[in-house]
Design goal:
The chain is an alpha+beta fold. The chain has one domain (26-133). 15% of the residues lie in helices and 20% in strands. The protein contains one helix and seven strands; from the N terminus they run αβββββββ. The chain has one helix at 2-22; strands spanning 44-45, 54-55, 69-73, 82-86, 101-105, 118-120, 129-133. The strands form three sheets. The chain has a three-stranded antiparallel beta sheet with strand order 4-3-6, with no helix packed on it. The longest helix has 21 residues, at 2-22. The protein is globular.
């Protein structure tokens, strides 16, 4: 009887672990607080993005979680540059279009002078596209 109880307890704990892992938030998911993105504190909620955006701040080349890209956004002066892990995409249907996100290439994000202000830092990132908030005209 004790053995059956131990097996049931282990199976229940394993099931709870699998359920928790299966629902883990991903880079690019919506959020209200950083706790929505990670219980470990390794991801934050960028509340400046529409409906929030789970991400990792201050990434460097090839340091983002698997299957995500590190994108640097440069503003004038350059010392205001920041980098963020972004969700990759093939087209806008891979993004949260209902929240105003689209699938874009870094060269499509332009500053006031018309020059690109973003770049993918990852080694194989020149052609990478990622989900980001896009301006829509009413």
């Amino acid at each position: 009887m004790k053995r059956l109880f131990a097996i049931a307890l282990q199976t229940g704990a394993l099931g709870a672990l699998i359920a928790a892992t299966a629902c883990a938030p991903e880079i690019g998911d919506d959020c209200s607080t950083s706790a929505d993105c990670s219980v470990n504190g390794d991801r934050i909620c960028d509340n400046a993005s529409p409906e929030g955006y789970c991400t990792v701040a201050d990434c460097e080349s090839d340091t983002c979680p698997e299957s995500t890209v590190c994108v640097e956004f440069r503003f004038e002066p350059d010392r205001l540059a920041s980098s963020w892990c972004m969700a990759p995409c093939e087209d806008s249907s891979d993004c949260r279009t209902e929240d105003g996100y689209g699938c874009i290439h870094a060269s499509e994000i332009l500053g006031v002078d018309g020059e690109p202000i973003a770049r993918v830092l990852d080694a194989a990132g020149d052609g990478s596209r990622f989900c980001a908030a896009v301006e829509t005209t009413p």
